[in-house]
Every structure is written in C-alpha cells, then in structure tokens.
Amino acid sequence: MLTRRAFVKSLGALGLAGLAGALRPAQAAPPPQKPNFVFFLIDDMGWRDLACYGSTFYETPNIDRLAAQGMRFTSAYAACPVCSPTRASIMTGKYPARLHLTDWIPSHERPYAKLRIPDWTRHLALEELTIAEALKPAGYVSASIGKWHLGDEEFWPDKQGFDLNVAGCQMGQPPSYFSPYKIPTIQPGPDGEYLTDRLADEAVSFIEKNKDRPFFLYLPHYAVHSPLMAKKEMVEKYQAKPKADEGQTNATYAAMIQSVDDCVGKVCAKLEALGLADRTIVFFMSDNGGVVRTTSNAPLRAGKGTLYEGGIREPMIVRWPGAVKPASVCDEVVTSVDFFPTILTMAGVMWESEGRLDGANLVPLLTRGARLQRDAVYWHYPHYHNTTPGGAIRAGDWKLIEYFEDGRVELYNLKDDLGETKDLASAMPERAAELRKKLADWRQAVGAQMPTPNPDYDPAKSAQPRQPPAKKAKAARAQPLSPMIGLGE
User: Fold this and answer.
1) The domain containing residue 432 runs over which residues?
2) Is 83 marked active-site?
3) Of the residues 165, 194, 312, 435, which has the maximum number of CB atoms within 10 A of its CB?
C-alpha cells in the first residue's frame, strides 16, 4: 500500500538520486529547473459550461485561451458524480472505492430506503500519501487555496502535506460568496469582497512569494457551487444578454463562471509577468457534472449525482509549454485518478505503489499521443442522491451502469449514442454480462464496500432524507462556523 510512512521510508533508501530518476556524472550540465504546477479545480461545473466546450451563453475567454495553448480533453471523467470522492482521487491517485470515501461529506442518509449504505470513511485518511506530500522531498512548496471538503479539522490541508491552507476546511459550500464569508480558515476582507476574487488574490500572492522555488498550487474553487451569488454588475450583463440556449440561461450562474474565468486569467497573467509561464504546468478540471436545475449538460444525459455522462464527464485542459501541442484535442478516456502519477512523473519524483495506485501516467499521452494501456475505467457509488446506489464501467466505446437495488443494468455505446438514449442491455446480453462481470471483479479487487438490505425499509418513507449533524469546529479559529457547514454536496 502506498502510504505516507512507506513513501518516506523508500526515500531514505533511494536518496535524492532516486527522486531525480537517475545519477548524473560529475561534469554534467546543471539539471533543468523543476516545473511548477497550478491546478484549477472547479466545483459543479458541467461539461458544456465553457465556450471552448460549446456554450453560447457563458463567457470564458481566459479558459478558452488556456485550451488554445494546451490540450483539451473530450472524454475526461471525475471519479465520482459528487465532489469529496473526486477530490480524494485527485490527491491520491486512487479510486474512491479503494479509499472507502464514496460520497460527499458528511452525506445524507435515507433511513427507510431499500438499501442501507455501507459504513464509509468521511475523511481523507492521514495514512494516504497526497500529491503535496509526495512532492515535498523534491523541494516543492505547496498551497491549497479554496475548498477542501475532505474531513474535519484534523484532516485539513495543513495536516495533509500542504505548507499553506487558505479557505480549506470541512465546508462543502460557503455560507456567503461575499465577505464576511464565515469560513474559519480565511480572514474576512472588506465588506462586499467576492470570494472567487479573493482566492485569485491569495493565489497570486503565493506565486509571488515562491517564484524562486518549485511550487504546487492547488486552487479548488468553491464556485460554481450553490448558493448562487455573483457580482451585481456581472449578473446584469447576463440578464441583458440574448439567450439562445434553453438550458443555459441563469444569469447569476453565468456571472459566477465569468468570475472563475477572471481568476484563471489573473493567475496566468502573474505567471507571465514573473517569467514563470514556460515552466509552469496548468491543469483545469471540474469535480462532477453540472446541476441540471442550474445549467444544461446536453447533449449529455442528466447531471450531478448520477452515473450518466452528465454527472461524471468533465471539462479538462492541460497546458504544458514546450511539451503539449497548442490547440490540441484528445479523445482518450482519462479520469481524475490519473493526476497523481502524472504530476509526480512531470516533477521527476519516483514512487512505489505496490499495485495499489489506480491512476495512469498521462505524460506519454500528452507529449506523444500514445494510447493508455488500460481497458476500462470504473465508478462505484453505493449511495442515494439523484440516483439509487450503483456502479458503472466504461470500456472503449461501451458503458454499463448497474443498479444495486434490483440488479438492473443499462448498456450504451457512447460513440453512437453520447446522450445515452438507447439502452442496449436486452439486445446485447453477452456484452452486458461481460462488462457486468468485469465491474464486479474490479469491485472485489479494490475492496469496494457494498450496500446491504435495509431491515427498516418502508416504501412509503423511502425517499425521506436524514442528514447527520455536522461536528462543531474547535474554537481557536478566525471566525465561528456557519450553521450551513456540511450542507454542500
């Protein structure tokens, strides 16, 4: 198992030469500078919420420019249809099923549903090795600026290898996007200061202070998660804008997206101004699909909280100057577990996973267009949300969804039917059985937790949710915690 303790022990055996990947002769030229990393993670942004992904209402010139300078992925996936598990998968390179962290924290319960959810883990365990911890022995300084949502105070970013934590705590959403934010890990700004702007400023400050050393900047925005709140002048701009897309008309949501885009522009401009852009690798990703009552993921089916494409397929961009061809488009299937091995490879850091790392190294794909050597990607969501407990597998063009309540399966060919409108399970029973077995074998291999029959099942009450109370934060913090803590999934 790739754990924090095992990693540190392996470093002692490998030494710095192990980190670099090879010994250098005494007269060799100085090694190239290590690359910096900036990772933008957006909350609840749908696959089509960017102009470069087809939106005609939302305006995202800075993100579009990022795509024009790098590689845009058309088949990139979050490891889960809700946020906390996807965030854990990014940090560790492991599927949420392996981590037993399979729902948003703290989740909600349905005490009378047909199935009882497993006793899953409501935090990212300290024994897990994060990207920040893996990079630290190679001389990297790391910051997490924004939403964390991976456990209570003892599991916050500063306990997981990050040198700086701004605004990261157990909250899944901010009580307010305008100061005072009532987030315990960020001091309030002037009245009316907008949170997305503030996070951009904090990111720029971190870059300025660490321009002379390699850094990993993890910038997970609270936006565009509810509550929908945006700057007045931006909202008015979109209220006045013609609305050609029936599904993308929300002016406040559009303004929130524009503020995220402004942040991307501001951070990238600072990299340029400091002469860091050419040796800084930039990632852009979302943690799950868009919320259907707020935006449209069409032509993808459904949205956040489901295993259909609208719940798990994400916008993803990688800019790597000198290595990734500008304005390139990649249709290869990639997923959020791939970031961990990819970033460590880019940084020249060696690690041993002992077969417990699920992600694929994307460097050959990014630099040479090489195909990935894996036959499938997987999802495990044993919870009730906008769906019933289930799992999914994508192998090539084929995708199968299995529902645990009744064992029903659905089979789709995504090449011919991106919108998942034609269930082929009954027409192609052998194909469905093959994928179903592969999915079951994978669950067993990663130790996935399964729901069990609920002795308190009551069909008349089965849809009634019950949310467990959030734990109170410790007193010595910048602000008292809001009663809304934990409500954001």
Assistant:
1) 380-453
2) yes
3) 312
